[in-house]
């Protein structure tokens, strides 16, 4: 199969159906815009399964996504979309770049959650965008993206809350289907979330970013807990 897109940790292949793709999640993790990388065994399979569970829950809640079905270990069948090159970050509590770049103390609670837009462009280091800049860049649907992001946050925060984990922040991407529908796309996994367990224990990619622990142990425990609650 010919890849359509080779991402940092995923490859997208054209499906047999022209309106579908197969996404392959690799056993690879990167941080700092690809400056740091590793190849943890089993990561692709775990992230695919976590992402499948989350997308299924979003669909159940009536949120449109690109997800079609689990397609085997580390494989997800999805609707083919044009990815909108904007990363939408939802913050429930302050951590990461907002703490580094402002005077806002770590774990300040945001109520309502903050919704931010970043340009998806590694060469430019994914800069934070203002709404005025987005408007000039031609994005006229910010209101809709914000509404979807809020709805995704309610479902995903609720899911993690059920397994005793606080969703500090996360990133989502949107795509446009062949019939012009905006849907939640890409992946939703501990690679693009900050997840805090009891005792302020990090359960996400910060473990790798900061060299503070094994992501496979953390991600596997999240998957196991999610599987237990969605099978009830
Ligand atoms: P930040 O604190 O580095 O701005 O990131 C906020 C959240 O969004 C964090 O959970 C990581 C995620 N994120 C990505 O996964 N990819 C990105 O390119 C960006 C900007 C954020």
Q: What can you see in these coordinates?
A:
The protein is α+β, with helices and mostly antiparallel strands and 232 residues long. The chain has 6 helices and 15 strands. Strand 1 and strand 2 (10-14) form a beta hairpin. It is globular. The relative contact order is 0.17. The protein binds thymidine-5'-phosphate. Thymidine-5'-phosphate binds next to strand 9, strand 12 and strand 14.
Q: Layout of helices and strands, plus pairs?
A:
Blueprint: E1 3-6, E2 10-14, E3 20-25, E4 29-31, E5 36-38, H1 43-60, E6 67-70, E7 75-79, E8 81-83, E9 86-93, H2 97-101, E10 109-119, E11 128-129, H3 131-136, H4 142-162, E12 166-177, E13 182-185, E14 193-197, E15 201-202, H5 206-209, H6 215-230
Antiparallel strand pairs: 1-2, 2-3, 3-7, 4-5, 6-7, 8-12, 9-10, 9-12, 10-11, 12-13, 12-14, 14-15
The chain binds thymidine-5'-phosphate.
Describe the structure using short key phrases.
alpha+beta, globular, 8-stranded antiparallel β-sheet, 6 helices, 5-stranded antiparallel β-sheet, binds thymidine-5'-phosphate, 232 residues
Structure summary:
With 232 residues, this protein is α+β, with helices and mostly antiparallel strands. Helices cover 30% and strands 33% of the residues. Thymidine-5'-phosphate (TMP) binds next to strand 9, strand 12 and strand 14.
Taking the sheet with the most strands, its summary is:
8 strands, antiparallel
Task: Tell me the series of helices and strands, N- to C-terminal.
Answer: EEEEEHEEEEHEEHHEEEEHH
Helical/strand content category: alpha+beta
Helix proportion range: 25-40%
| Distance between the ends | 37 Å
Q: How much of the residues is beta strand, in percent? A: 25-35%
Number of helices: 6
* Beta-strand segment tally: 15
What's the overall average pLDDT, rounded? 96
Attached small molecules: thymidine-5'-phosphate
If you compute it from the alpha carbons, what radius of gyration comes out, rounded to the nearest whole angstrom? 17 Å
Low-pLDDT segments, ≥5 res? none
Give the CA-based shape.
Answer: globular
């Amino acid at each position: 199969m010919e890849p359509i897109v080779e991402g940092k940790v995923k490859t997208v292949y054209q499906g047999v159906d022209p309106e579908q793709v197969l996404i392959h999640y690799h056993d690879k993790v990167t941080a700092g815009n690809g400056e740091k990388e590793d190849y943890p065994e089993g990561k692709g399979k775990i992230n695919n399964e976590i992402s499948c569970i989350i997308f299924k829950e979003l669909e159940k809640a009536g949120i449109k996504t690109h997800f079609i079905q689990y397609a085997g270990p580390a494989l997800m069948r999805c609707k083919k979309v044009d990815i909108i090159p904007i990363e939408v970050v939802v913050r429930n509590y302050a951590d990461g770049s907002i703490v580094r770049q402002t005077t806002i103390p770590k774990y300040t609670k945001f109520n309502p959650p903050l919704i931010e837009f970043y340009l998806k462009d590694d060469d430019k280091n994914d800069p934070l965008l203002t709404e005025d800049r987005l408007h000039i860049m031609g994005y006229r649907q910010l209101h809709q993206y914000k509404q979807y992001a809020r709805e995704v946050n309610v479902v995903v925060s609720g899911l993690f809350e059920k397994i005793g984990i606080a969703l500090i922040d996360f990133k989502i991407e949107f795509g446009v289907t062949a019939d012009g529908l905006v849907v939640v796309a890409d992946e939703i996994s501990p690679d693009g979330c900050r997840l805090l367990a009891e005792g302020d224990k990090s359960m996400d990619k910060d473990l790798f970013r900061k060299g503070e622990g094994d992501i496979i142990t953390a991600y596997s425990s999240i998957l196991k807990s999610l599987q237990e609650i969605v099978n009830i």
